[in-house]
Amino acid sequence: MSAPSPLARLRAAARRLEREVDALVVAYRDPRVPRSARVVIGLTVAYALSPVDLIPDVVPVLGVLDDLLVVPFGLWLALRLVPDGVIEDARRRAAEAPGETLALRQTGFRIVLGLWVGLVALAWFAFA
Fold first, then answer.
1. Do residues 41 and 24 lie in contact, with contact meaning Cβ atoms separated by under 8 Å?
2. Could you tell me the pLDDT band of residue 8, with boundaries at 50, 70 and 90?
3. Rg of the chain over CA atoms, in angstroms?
4. Domain extents for the chain?
5. Rounded to an integer, what distance in angstroms lies between the CA atom of residue 22 and that of residue 121?
6. Distance CA 55, CA 78 (A)
7. What sections of the protein cross the membrane (predicted)?
8. In the chain, which residue ranges form alpha helices assigned H by DSSP?
9. 16-54, pLDDT tens digit by residue?
10. Cβ atoms of 70 and 54 closer than 8 Å
11. d(CA 109, CA 52)
Protein backbone atom coordinates (compact mmCIF):
# COMPACT_ATOMS: atom_id res chain seq x y z
CA MET A 1 0.00 0.00 0.00
CA SER A 2 1.35 3.43 -0.89
CA ALA A 3 1.77 6.32 1.52
CA PRO A 4 -0.94 8.99 1.52
CA SER A 5 -0.32 11.93 -0.78
CA PRO A 6 0.86 15.23 0.70
CA LEU A 7 -2.56 16.73 -0.04
CA ALA A 8 -4.31 13.90 1.82
CA ARG A 9 -2.00 14.38 4.81
CA LEU A 10 -2.67 18.12 4.75
CA ARG A 11 -6.44 17.55 4.70
CA ALA A 12 -6.17 15.11 7.62
CA ALA A 13 -4.10 17.62 9.58
CA ALA A 14 -6.66 20.35 8.84
CA ARG A 15 -9.48 18.11 10.12
CA ARG A 16 -7.53 17.37 13.32
CA LEU A 17 -6.85 21.08 13.77
CA GLU A 18 -10.54 21.90 13.29
CA ARG A 19 -11.54 19.28 15.89
CA GLU A 20 -9.05 20.76 18.38
CA VAL A 21 -10.35 24.29 17.74
CA ASP A 22 -13.91 23.06 18.27
CA ALA A 23 -12.85 21.43 21.54
CA LEU A 24 -11.18 24.65 22.68
CA VAL A 25 -14.29 26.65 21.81
CA VAL A 26 -16.34 24.31 24.01
CA ALA A 27 -13.67 24.31 26.75
CA TYR A 28 -13.61 28.12 26.78
CA ARG A 29 -17.12 28.11 28.23
CA ASP A 30 -16.32 25.50 30.90
CA PRO A 31 -15.94 27.00 34.40
CA ARG A 32 -13.14 24.51 35.21
CA VAL A 33 -10.84 26.14 32.64
CA PRO A 34 -8.33 28.53 34.23
CA ARG A 35 -8.44 32.20 33.31
CA SER A 36 -4.97 32.01 31.72
CA ALA A 37 -6.19 29.33 29.31
CA ARG A 38 -9.25 31.42 28.43
CA VAL A 39 -7.05 34.41 27.64
CA VAL A 40 -4.81 32.30 25.38
CA ILE A 41 -7.83 30.71 23.66
CA GLY A 42 -9.48 34.10 23.13
CA LEU A 43 -6.34 35.76 21.78
CA THR A 44 -5.55 32.85 19.48
CA VAL A 45 -9.05 32.66 18.04
CA ALA A 46 -9.21 36.46 17.67
CA TYR A 47 -5.86 36.48 15.85
CA ALA A 48 -6.94 33.63 13.59
CA LEU A 49 -10.20 35.39 12.68
CA SER A 50 -8.71 38.88 12.49
CA PRO A 51 -8.05 40.37 9.06
CA VAL A 52 -5.00 42.16 10.51
CA ASP A 53 -1.75 40.18 10.92
CA LEU A 54 1.48 40.90 12.75
CA ILE A 55 3.23 40.67 9.39
CA PRO A 56 1.01 41.49 6.37
CA ASP A 57 0.40 38.60 3.99
CA VAL A 58 1.80 40.66 1.10
CA VAL A 59 5.31 40.25 2.55
CA PRO A 60 6.70 37.19 0.74
CA VAL A 61 7.04 34.06 2.90
CA LEU A 62 7.01 35.90 6.26
CA GLY A 63 3.43 37.11 5.77
CA VAL A 64 2.09 33.57 5.64
CA LEU A 65 4.70 32.16 8.00
CA ASP A 66 3.39 34.19 10.94
CA ASP A 67 -0.05 32.59 10.50
CA LEU A 68 1.55 29.17 10.30
CA LEU A 69 3.46 29.77 13.53
CA VAL A 70 1.35 32.04 15.74
CA VAL A 71 -1.98 30.22 15.48
CA PRO A 72 -0.63 26.66 15.99
CA PHE A 73 1.55 27.87 18.87
CA GLY A 74 -1.47 29.54 20.50
CA LEU A 75 -3.53 26.38 20.08
CA TRP A 76 -0.71 24.23 21.45
CA LEU A 77 -0.32 26.51 24.47
CA ALA A 78 -4.08 26.61 25.10
CA LEU A 79 -4.27 22.81 24.95
CA ARG A 80 -1.48 22.61 27.53
CA LEU A 81 -3.19 25.08 29.86
CA VAL A 82 -6.60 23.36 29.82
CA PRO A 83 -6.75 20.45 32.32
CA ASP A 84 -6.70 17.01 30.65
CA GLY A 85 -10.10 15.91 31.93
CA VAL A 86 -11.69 19.14 30.76
CA ILE A 87 -10.23 18.97 27.25
CA GLU A 88 -11.29 15.32 26.87
CA ASP A 89 -14.82 16.26 27.94
CA ALA A 90 -14.76 19.24 25.55
CA ARG A 91 -13.61 17.03 22.65
CA ARG A 92 -16.47 14.63 23.33
CA ARG A 93 -19.03 17.45 23.62
CA ALA A 94 -17.75 19.14 20.45
CA ALA A 95 -18.05 15.87 18.51
CA GLU A 96 -21.59 15.27 19.81
CA ALA A 97 -22.89 18.78 19.04
CA PRO A 98 -21.07 20.30 16.05
CA GLY A 99 -23.75 22.98 15.64
CA GLU A 100 -22.84 24.46 19.03
CA THR A 101 -19.25 25.16 18.01
CA LEU A 102 -20.29 26.51 14.61
CA ALA A 103 -22.63 29.01 16.24
CA LEU A 104 -19.92 30.06 18.69
CA ARG A 105 -17.36 30.47 15.91
CA GLN A 106 -19.79 32.58 13.89
CA THR A 107 -20.47 34.73 16.95
CA GLY A 108 -16.74 35.12 17.56
CA PHE A 109 -16.19 36.12 13.95
CA ARG A 110 -18.94 38.72 14.19
CA ILE A 111 -17.44 40.14 17.38
CA VAL A 112 -13.94 40.40 15.89
CA LEU A 113 -15.32 41.90 12.68
CA GLY A 114 -17.38 44.39 14.67
CA LEU A 115 -14.35 45.40 16.72
CA TRP A 116 -12.28 46.03 13.60
CA VAL A 117 -15.08 48.00 11.93
CA GLY A 118 -15.43 50.05 15.11
CA LEU A 119 -11.68 50.70 15.28
CA VAL A 120 -11.57 51.76 11.63
CA ALA A 121 -14.55 54.07 12.15
CA LEU A 122 -12.95 55.54 15.27
CA ALA A 123 -9.68 56.14 13.42
CA TRP A 124 -11.56 57.66 10.49
CA PHE A 125 -13.37 60.16 12.68
CA ALA A 126 -10.29 60.88 14.80
CA PHE A 127 -8.04 61.68 11.84
CA ALA A 128 -10.53 63.09 9.32
1. yes
2. confident
3. 17
4. 6-127
5. 32
6. 22
7. 108-127
8. 6-28, 35-49, 62-81, 84-96, 98-127
9. 887 888 888 888 889 999 999 999 998 887 777 676 777
10. yes
11. 13
